[in-house]
Design brief:
The chain has two helices and no strands. By secondary structure, the chain is an all-alpha fold. The chain has one domain. α1 packs antiparallel against α2. The longest helix has 24 residues. The N and C termini lie far apart (32 Å). The mean pLDDT is 96.
């Protein structure tokens, strides 16, 4: 299993990807898909929060608290 820092980077990558999807869906007025992207982002942020509690030395990032 990857260490916490590697897992956090994977979650942040997913957040970056889904922020772009969210923006595309909002521009296309696809609110359902935008909600799904937001839900995925929130889930990844929850995982990051848990990992950072286990290893407080992991630096925070604006992605950890991004909101539309």
């Amino acid at each position: 299993m990857p260490d916490e820092a590697t897992q956090v980077e994977g979650q942040r990558k997913a957040i970056r990807e889904h922020i772009e999807k969210y923006k595309r869906f909002k521009a296309a007025n696809d609110d359902g898909a935008a909600r799904t992207a937001t839900s995925t982002i929130e889930n990844a942020q929850s995982h990051i929060e848990k990992l950072r509690r286990r290893k407080p030395s992991i630096a925070s990032d604006p992605l950890d608290s991004w909101r539309p």
